[in-house]
Design a protein that fits this description.
2 copies of one chain form a homodimer. Chain A contains 27 helices and 9 strands. Chain A is of the alpha/beta class and 581 residues long. In chain A, strands 3, 4, 5, 6, 7, 8 and 9 form a 7-stranded mixed β-sheet that branches. Chain A has a two-stranded antiparallel ribbon with strand order 1-2. In chain A, a hairpin with a 5-residue loop joins strand 3 and strand 4. The radius of gyration of chain A is 30 Å and the shape is elongated. At the A-B interface, helix 20, helix 22, helix 23, helix 24 and helix 25 of A face helix 20, helix 22, helix 23, helix 24 and helix 25 of B.
Chain lengths: 581, 581
């Protein structure tokens, strides 16, 4: 590889970022990578089966989706610790998307799931190639937090039926689900519930109290981690042993995972029926965006701790390739999971090799160990999901936003409510719309201040906030916004109101320090305003017009229209000349 | 009325603005009002019949829609010259909306049209009561201009079949319409075409050359107006005479209006079938918004010439009431027309009485004179529409926007294209979306300048545009935008890039003179940025933070987090302290 001409190597590395760490792999990194690979595997096996069930798929589909994606991502992605595979919110979105077209458990359902993975992959690769990674910036923190909180609640409640041992058909509506659970409350299988609650107890104990205990006993973080993260595996093993020894699956009706096919993942071919593609497209778009958002923010969080550089568009391509890989190996849509990546990071993963090791270990499991899963109780998997997602419910962010910015809090609440009321897909779209509308609403009613000179300085500040000097003849107004179609009329109304209150005003000075843009609509409003004021004998002046704005005003002839000597570099100069202060 | 207590009168006048001019009516205003009423009527009768045909309705429906709306609006509206009745673009939208549900000419079609008027009325009244008149500000000039230009082209081409005497079914698609016309070109009725072209010749001649000629001969504007505006009536009379005398309707197959029912408009009851209401709702919303936009901008244009005050929400209520009136008197959706209002204004209308006179004159026509319309050729009405709408095609605005602001020009082109390609309703929604997206896109990549001191002044300007003094240790950056979710990451990337290029930088100064808002997402980005820079030994400072922004930063504890002494009132003070310059 080193014999290749430099430019070619650089270009190759641009497309396959793994070449960087593969070519310079240091043996000292191996231990961390292997440890992390093993620990993540022990977490991933029960989680991926649980998430597959959440997506309405047989558990082994979750395992299949944990092999090739985990091997493909580290070759193409720019993060070295991101763990790619099935994820909770994505699994819920898959279930919601396919439920409209096929019943859970049917062979069509599986075909639609792998087709969805292919579509998500194509969309992500396409967006990456078109450098559209920036799109994710249009989801605000409030929308993301409200969305994930709402989705976590739906996920949690969707598992309650497994925890209670109830047979309840898949339903999209949160309210309907609650009603069904309440109406069947007399049919609760108490042993199932006991086993589930015991599992949750173990998971919660390992999560916090045990960690603190071991720390007090002087264990190192490096040793605590594998113990604490082995809880899901432990729950799965204990649950399976209990059921198989006491035959609870037959005598007490505890529902188990049952037969899981063994052997290497089969080559699966998604459908290429365009009709089906078109039906799945909206869901695929939503899953691609949400999955990307989730994975990318995970990658970014760990990159900033290691000073790595994450390329948003290369990440899209890597996630897309991982999904295409999932589609052809019997999997379903995947993305980078924040919590598993955190485990990998803490376990000492140095390079993408950790993820590759995970993929290989899962493949070995699928080939030789699936018979062990026969007696695995579904209630244990439900317990794993519930304890994994409850942490995602983020009312703290809501509370903080409420104190800081009501608009953000409102966007959070609307998104949260829409996810619960309308479902995950519509919920996030609705939330994003609300956030954008609130932003536009805000900019359409900008803060406008009448300003005066602060003492003898060159600074001009709001007359309502500071003791400042003003002139009765010259009204100096600072608009704290770009002037564009949605707020130009608002500014005009403000000016007209102030002028009618001040009959002695002969000059208006518009302080443009915060005006970053004047669009064509606002330009028209300004032109007619200037003309109207002229007939009243009032002159219109500008100060502190920014360079890029001035260039355009000059080009279109507005500066000549308003008068070249009506533009001042600073408010200071303008007020000295116009008002003599 | 004067005996009422003052406060009640004032409150009543708020709801019925007409009380103002009714109570103080001066006899000197009467002549102008009567003249304007007569001239507008002579224009309105042929126009309203033509627009009804454009909407796919029998011509008398246009007359019905010109009676009560013309009487109701001046009682409730705040403009004294606006002429309310059928309008071109609205008629096209009515046709597009109903075509999906009933064939033209059927009785269901008519019921749907009056139901649409009721829905539009209810929506407008509701929006007015909820004070939602501001919504129209979110349609930019570019979108409005592109929309009207596209609609004008569709309207013009929809009349070509009448001009050519071709029988072509109503079609929503512009392309399909063109194809049908071309395929039937051999069936053109040449007499129809000749009569239509002659009508257009008369209309165009009266419009401009005749006015100039009369002006040269010393006629006053006051005398020219009734002559020039009588052209449509003249065309209608001449056309009808020719056809009835030479019996062209039988011999030569010229299509005429035929039987028009006579008598006072019947009381019509819209359907209250909720299923139908739901189907018509999207169209009703679009027509309400577009109609309001059209009427309101008309009202505003004339108000500013007379120093009247137009209340956007009262206008919504007045338009809504006019539409409800239309719905119960056999009419269809109406709005304020800019061109007829201009005629009324020029003809000397002083108060709403002019419009009321118009309504009464149309009522008399409908009661006694409809038999005169039997021989009225449809080709003459088509000529009237074409000569009325071609002026709406506004490429001049596109060209100006192209020179000034490409984003506005792109929004124009997209709206125009979408109206032609997708139809009027979807076209305006699509256009509005494009304009908003372009605005958001623009604000998501704000202009960011590195600034330095201008000479020995207190002003700091862009280093790329001015000869300024800077410090190698202190990087002063001015972000020309509010910081919100869509641009916070962009700013962060900019800063990180600049810092990595300048290893000696120890302080960052963020000049916030153009930052009107920092939302919760941007706040998080700033917090993590400050934390990251601290680990690199770089301090983060702020200057010129605006009052409202500072209040919120203080409240949430950000000011303490960043350090109280890290905030400076001015960039001048900050740079003297931090950089010693």
């Amino acid at each position: 590889m080193t014999s290749l001409p430099k430019s070619l190597t650089t270009r190759l590395q641009q497309y396959i970022p793994a070449l960087d760490w593969l070519r310079h792999y240091q043996s000292k990194h191996l231990f961390g990578d292997i440890t992390a690979g093993i620990i993540v595997t022990s977490l991933l096996i029960p989680q991926s089966m649980a998430y597959a069930l959440l997506a309405g798929l047989p558990p082994h589909v979750g395992l299949y989706a944990s092999i090739f994606p985990a091997i493909i991502y580290p070759l193409l992605g720019t993060s070295r610790v991101l763990a790619v595979g099935p994820a909770a919110v994505d699994s819920l979105m898959v279930a919601a998307a396919i439920a409209k077209f096929a019943p859970q458990g049917s062979s069509e359902y599986l075909v639609l799931a792998i087709t969805l993975a292919l579509l998500v992959g194509i969309i992500e690769i396409g967006m990456g190639a078109l450098r559209m990674g920036f799109l994710v910036n249009f989801l605000s923190r409030s929308v993301i937090s409200g969305f994930i909180s709402g989705a976590a609640i739906i996920i949690g409640f969707s598992q309650v039926k497994h925890l209670l041992g109830l047979k309840i058909p898949a339903t999209e509506s949160f309210i309907e689900l609650l009603t069904l659970i309440v109406s069947k409350i007399s049919e609760v299988n108490w042993v199932t519930l006991g086993l589930g609650l015991a599992s949750m107890g173990i998971l919660l104990y390992f999560n916090q109290p045990l960690v603190k205990q071991l720390k007090r006993q002087g264990w190192s973080d490096q040793k605590i981690l594998p113990v604490s993260k082995s809880a899901p595996l432990l729950v799965v093993i204990l649950g399976s042993l209990l059921v198989s020894i006491f035959q609870w699956d037959q005598g007490l009706g505890i529902r188990v995972v049952g037969m899981v096919p063994s052997g290497f993942p089969p080559l699966t071919i998604p459908t290429f029926d365009l009709q089906i593609w078109r039906s799945l497209l909206p869901a695929a778009l939503a899953i691609a965006l949400v999955g990307y958002m989730e994975g990318f923010s995970g990658a970014q969080a760990f990159a900033s701790k290691r000073r790595e550089k994450i390329d948003p568009n290369q990440e899209l391509i890597a996630f897309g390739a991982a999904n295409v890989g999932a589609a052809f190996s019997g999997g379903y849509p995947v993305t980078g999971g924040v919590s598993r990546s955190a485990v990998s990071f803490s376990a000492g993963a140095n390079t993408g090799l950790a993820s590759i090791i995970t993929g290989i270990l899962v493949a070995i499991t699928v080939m030789f160990l699936t018979s062990w899963f026969y007696f695995l109780p579904q209630t244990c998997l439900a317990a794993i999901i519930i304890t994994a997602v409850y942490k995602l419910i983020d009312f703290a962010t809501l509370k903080r936003m409420w104190n800081y910015d009501k608009a953000d809090a409102i966007a959070w609440l609307f998104t949260f409510g829409a996810v619960l009321g309308l479902g995950v897909e519509k919920g996030i779209i609705f939330g994003a719309m609300v956030a954008l509308s609130l932003h536009l609403w805000h900019t359409s009613r900008p803060h406008i201040a009448i300003v005066g000179r602060l003492g003898n300085s060159e600074h001009f500040r709001n007359v309502l906030r500071y003791e400042v000097k003003t002139s009765p003849q010259v009204l100096a107004i600072r608009v704290d916004a770009s002037l564009y179609f949605a707020n130009a009329k608002y500014m005009e109304n403000f000016l007209n109101r102030e002028i009618s209150d001040r009959p002695v005003v002969t000059s208006i000075l518009l302080v443009c320090s915060a005006v970053n843009l004047i669009d064509a609509s606002a330009l028209e409003v300004l032109e007619s305003l200037i003309a109207d004021l002229r007939t009243l004998g009032i002159n219109f002046y500008f100060s502190e017009v920014k360079g890029p704005v001035m260039d355009k005003l000059l080009k279109i002839g507005f500066v000549d229209y308003a008068g070249r000597d009506h533009f001042f570099l600073s408010t200071d100069i303008a007020m000295r000349e116009l008002a003599g202060i």
